[in-house]
Amino acid sequence: MKLNTTVGIAIGLVVAVGLVAALLAVVKPSAKSAASAWKKAEGAKLLDEKRDVERTLARNNLLWEIAVTAKKSGPDSVAAMEAVNALLVVDSTGYPKATAEGSRITVGWPDRAIVLEFNNRLMTGVDASALVAE
Amino acid sequence: MLKKIFMIGVFLLDAFLVYWAVVGQKADYMDQARELQQKQADGIHDWARTQLSDAKVNARLWQLSLQLLDGPKDRPSVIKTVKGWQKTNLPEELGGFVQDISKKGFDGKKIDMWKVAWKKNSITLRFDEAGQLADVDVNSLLGRSGMVEPVMEAPEAEDEEG
């Protein structure tokens, strides 16, 4: 009985030392890397959110700049559109783009655009209300 | 008896170590990660809120630019429009102001400029010698420059001969 208890204590101590070693060598780094992977994934979501806001602001600014530049270059429609086209740099998505429809040209993205209105080769107005409505 | 108690103690220690290794460590690191994530999320959300809210106020200055480019160009009308507009759209409580920032050029002539601003965002109106609105500068709203400096060439050096 005495021997059994001594063996039990010895086994218990060996197991304890083994567990500490395992903790330091395997469990701790793996727990750290799991938390780090989680943080990376969540951090990426935050970065996406930040980029979304930056994209929104950049698009707004570009459209405002186009509106003001067109106004400054107008009212001649050719001069106004030249100024607009100079600022329109189409990216890989094919936007921003200028789409003509009757006497109106919509400039921007599907969810964010300004409208230039023309009449008799003159630019008669710029509707930037979509940029204010947000 | 004492040995038995000690043995039970050692087994309890083992059990605690197993728990600590498997659950405790992971929880500790995850807590730290969550805390950091929350801090960063708060920071980014604050930043986004400020940016979007600033953009809304800036939109008023953009609209004013369009309005001025559409309206009468003579100095008194423009200044009257701007001052009236500022009272309702960019009141002082918002940090809005209209300021005469005219200065003298190298040639001694007055460069007639007005600034409509809030915080560090502004548009600058420049009038020509005839008192007509010559330009509405929006570079500050685009973050390109804080202030518009008109191009002022230094007078050419006088010929010392003769």
Write the SSE topology:
The complex is a heterodimer of chains A (134) and B (162).
Chain A: H1 2-73, H2 77-87, E1 97-101, E2 104-109, E3 112-119, E4 122-127, H3 129-132
Antiparallel strand pairs in A: 1-2, 2-3, 3-4
Helix pairs in contact in A: 1-2
Chain B: H1 2-70, H2 75-89, E1 96-100, E2 103-104, E3 110-118, E4 121-127, E5 133-137
Antiparallel strand pairs in B: 1-3, 2-3, 3-4, 4-5
List keywords for this structure.
heterodimer; A: 134 residues; alpha+beta; four-stranded antiparallel beta sheet; 3 helices; B: 162 residues; five-stranded antiparallel beta sheet; 2 helices; rod-shaped; disordered C terminus
| Rough outline of chain B | rod-shaped
- Give the N-to-C terminal Cα separation of chain B: 121 Å
Quaternary form: heterodimer
What is the molecular shape of chain A? rod-shaped
Strand content of chain B: 15-25%
Helix percent band of chain B: 40-55%
- Number of beta strands of chain A: 4
> End-to-end distance of chain A, in Å?
81 Å
The largest β sheet of chain A comes out as: 4 strands, antiparallel
pLDDT < 50 stretches of chain A: none
Strand order of the largest sheet of chain A: 1-2-3-4
Number of distinct helices of chain A: 3
Order of helices and strands of chain A: HHEEEEH
Strand element count of chain B: 5
The overall pLDDT of chain A, averaged over residues, is 87
The largest chain-to-chain contact, stated as pair and per-chain residue counts, equals: A-B, 43 and 45 residues
Order of helices and strands of chain B: HHEEEEE
Strand content of chain A: 15-25%
Q: Note poorly predicted spans of chain B.
A: 157-162
